[in-house]
């Protein structure tokens, strides 16, 4: 498991935004992954996607790495942010915008507002 932890650590720390998900950002393979990828894609966030279905060591390793039992998992600037429910709540409350702003992550503020307006 050390090899998986090392690979995960390099990806998490080597990218500003990383989404560990089932599938890819262009072809999510579960509803929760699709929701988070959809938010990031719609907001124009540049992020690395890691398909946990392609590697069983990574699939289990990411759960151990974050001590979080579910996938997807979003990381911003090396820090674990949360899974689908947390990202959804943060998007709707504006907390995700604040997190991106504080960490210098570019995103479309108008798109973020449209998400909130459509779900308000």
TrEMBL record:
Binding positions ([2Fe-2S] cluster): 30
Domain of life: Bacteria
Keyword tags: 2Fe-2S, Iron, Iron-sulfur, Metal-binding, Redox-active center
Record bears the keyword Transmembrane helix: no
Gene Ontology MF term list: 2 iron, 2 sulfur cluster binding; disulfide oxidoreductase activity; metal ion binding
Glutaredoxin domain ranges (all copies): 17-81
Family: Belongs to the glutaredoxin family. Monothiol subfamily.
Protein name per Swiss-Prot or TrEMBL: Glutaredoxin
Organism in which the protein naturally occurs: Pseudooceanicola nitratireducens
High-level lineage: Bacteria, Pseudomonadati, Pseudomonadota, Alphaproteobacteria, Rhodobacterales
